[in-house]
Fold each of these.
Amino acid sequence: MQQRRAFIRQISLLLGALTVSSPLLSNSKNARMKDQKQYDVIIIGGSYAGLAAAMALGRALRTVLVVDNGKPCNIQTPYSHNFLTNDGKAPSEITAIAKAQVIQYKTVTLLNDLVVRSLETTAGYEIELANGHSYRSKKLVFATGIKDIMPAIPGFAACWGISVLHCPYCHGYEVRRQKTGVLANGDVAMELAALISNWTDDLTVYTNGPSLLMPEQMAKLQKHNISIVEDKIARIDHENGYINHIVFDNGSSKSVSALYARLPFLQHSSIPVELGCQLTPDGYI
Ligand SMILES: Cc1cc2nc3c(=O)[nH]c(=O)nc-3n(C[C@H](O)[C@H](O)[C@H](O)COP(=O)(O)OP(=O)(O)OC[C@H]3O[C@@H](n4cnc5c(N)ncnc54)[C@H](O)[C@@H]3O)c2cc1C
């Protein structure tokens, strides 16, 4: 679902950028040649979405500047899966291949830096980088992604993307039929448990405090041999991100090989909102 949303977001951003007026109509080619810092499109964020947009725009003969500071949401995950032609590759390897392909287009420039500010100008947009340089463009694409907000459970963040997982389609096969937990409560717990029970019969829901599940939901979980643990979690014991135990406030612990969680998130960059972009109630642009 998250992947599908990301894809839809990516396509709509790209379509917006492709509406840059034709160089033939605007006669902007000469202006570009005078000032190398003026681009048709600046893309903030050069991970998968930003590089995909850069390839399409570069091939459409738009001059494109991609600025990225190298902090994608999947930075900690050792291997990506379920991505045809790249199954099992490290995320950084996929990005390196994408960069090598995109940079073949002379119309595309990649910069490794952080965009700290952006403002609307009469001719489009201006961005300022952390190194103090600024660049102008007619259109701006945000491919800045989202940032997952980690719960304050010691050990959780260190395991994120390694053995604490967000998506069974991405990582479920690798931990199939193993002792698995779902860290969630109420309706989300029901939804995740139903989904993840496809990958394992050894599933426990950890509600991390009193259960918010309705009696009929509890009965349904019990019917499918999915147990519920309501103890408050103190920490996650792990080795290099690979989870060993969930340890509870009362001193008890449970061993698991994988734990699924659905985290709240924020936009990675505040620039879209500062520029006046509206967020959906879910937090997407
Ligand atoms: C832990 C984890 C594991 C995953 N595993 C898989 C998997 O196995 N298979 C799969 O298909 N999908 C997986 N995903 C989903 C996949 O990683 C995302 O769908 C994808 O990374 C989204 O790409 P994106 O370009 O939109 O955002 P991101 O990849 O998050 O990239 C956003 C980029 O924008 C940059 N940026 C943000 N603000 C600025 C700024 N102001 N200036 C400069 N640069 C900026 C960031 O540094 C970052 O590089 C996983 C996600 C997570 C969180």
Note: The pocket of flavin-adenine dinucleotide is lined by residues 3, 6, 44-45, 47-50, 67-74, 77, 80-83, 114-115, 143-145, 148, 160-161, 166, 170-171, 268-269, 271 (CB under 6 Å).
Amino acid sequence: MTDLSPALKYLLNELEVQLQQALKELKRLRQAVHQLEEENRRLRKIFWAATGEEGRWQQLKLLYEEGYHICPPFFAQERSSEGCLFCLALLEREGE
Ligand SMILES: [Zn+2]
């Protein structure tokens, strides 16, 4: 590897940089997947722990309080700190 042309050296350096970036991105994605799996596990637990109509309402409320939508259009997506009108409408119907 002593007499590589400058152009080839440059290309190899570029390749190395790109590989490092790809590795970094892979690490980030792995972490994101891990977080999503954890979140999914938590949400499943909340759901499947529910028994009966009353229990399901409780779980939905809990899910809402945990910061997730329970309304059909955005179900299980993270909610901003402001309330969601669809979710609130659903919660209001609870007693009916
Ligand atoms: Zn909502």
Note: DSSP finds three helices and no strands in the chain.
